[in-house]
Automatic annotation (TrEMBL):
Descriptive protein name: MFS transporter
Record bears the keyword Transmembrane: yes
Family to which this protein belongs: Belongs to the sodium:galactoside symporter (TC 2.A.2) family.
Single GO term (MF): symporter activity
One GO cellular component term noted in the UniProt record for this chain: plasma membrane
Xref: Gene3D superfamilies: MFS general substrate transporter like domains (1.20.1250.20)
Entry-linked Pfam families: MFS_2
UniProtKB keywords: Membrane, Transmembrane, Transmembrane helix
Gene Ontology process terms (BP): carbohydrate transport
Membrane-traversing stretches: 40-58, 79-98, 110-128, 149-166, 186-204, 225-245, 251-269, 292-317, 329-349, 356-374, 380-402, 423-448, 468-489
SUPFAM superfamilies cross-referenced by the UniProt entry: MFS general substrate transporter (SSF103473)
Source species of the chain: Alteromonas sediminis
Amino acid sequence: MQKPQLTLQEKVSYALGDAAANLVWRGALAYLAVFYTDTFGISASAAALLFLVVRLSDGITDIIMGMIADRTNSRWGKFRPWIFISTPFLGLFMVLCFTTPDWSEQDKLIYAYVTYIGLTLAYTFNNVPYSALMGVMTSSDVERTSLSGFRFAGAFLGGLFVMGFLPDMVAYFGNGNDAQGYQYSMYVFSGILMFLMLVTVVGTKERVNCVSSSSLPLSREITDLCKQLPFILLPLLAITLFFYYRSLPTFGFLIAVGISTTWVIKKLLHQPDEQRSRAQQDMVDLLMNKPWLILLAMGFLTMMFNGIKYGVIAYYFKYFIGDELLAGKYFVALLVVSVVGALCTEFFVKLWGRKYVFIIALLASAILTSALYWVGADQIGLLFILGCAAEFFAAMMPTLFFSMLGDAADYSEWKTGRRATGLVYSAGTFVQKTGGGFAGALVLVVLASYGYNGMDPVTTTHAVPGMLLLMSFIPSLFAVIGACVMLAYPIDSQMQSKMTADLISRREHFMP
């Protein structure tokens, strides 16, 4: 079996799918916090809890969707049918999320939960299969790195359209009515999203076929997974409660849950293979997969780093710089540089390998981001230079992360003979959403701690010091921690080459 070289047309087709997804993920959601507090009309603390609850619960559906996709078989493949089916719902909820009904504050909060949950569910059914598609388009780790570069170039371009032009579109369509401006703008982006996703479905192909290691019905396996959910949900609930309330009882609950979860995991790991269900075996495979565990941490930490930076920009320009529309130009500058950074990743990987490029990117971006703390409100040129330089390195992080998830799937198949590409990638999107949820919530929690109220101009001035910290030192801390974690990543270029050769040989053996 030869390692297929992907055509430029197929790489571009795949990249357009993430351009579409990031009209939502990197684009619209970057403005969702400021939309909720300053236009929709809910408090920063209520919005913070909304972000946490919805993103964490959504992460569980990522895992279920990964299992479903892994067990899907059709003439279109495992993953592309789900991209096609979910796209209209993603476009619909994108519009609904930015629609402001003339209701009471309590009813609006309920509406926000319903529509945000709908958006994240549609995104799950769309993006988990989309992410996993990379793992079956080619068996070459080199081609996966190249494909990941194209993917995130597309992602940054998609985000650029929303983040760069949304403020001006809101002003144009709203004509003084921001609620109307947001809604009409989302009509435009929703139409673009559906067209680009269709190009991805038609223009890509699934090539890597793996022998299924399960004969159980999907319904039985999902039921089995649901029995394991308390051991996933309880730790997340404990972390969320402590993060939001920061009290002694919530800290005690966090410690108790941590001890109990550790005991359950140790018991599961020592259980004989034949006594485990398929869902339990999948969990054990992941827990024994050191590269995946490290990448799990990296997905969370890098999303915290990038999510905090992007989440505070709209507030920073509106209240510190004093020019709300300039935020759009800053987003454009960042995302143009991001495209360059994503496309340059493959070049640097060939020189130093994924692991060391990841570490360099984390540290360089952290240093440059920290320097933003000392930039004055009138130093716009310096702000753009430092922000863009930091973003060049930050753009490499998701590019490396998703290409390395393919390596983690290879590692699992190489070690165990079992491969769960959808589950590996769904766990990746799960930690990204978890990190994104915590990042968005942390921005709002910090602002709320300074007394921020988007409907009261007096409180916004008092919250400026918090905005400065959120633009600089707070996200940089997560990048430095990530660099330390990445030092333990075990797969180097030599090991990757051996895994690839061994897996190709096995797949040739099982081919009819």
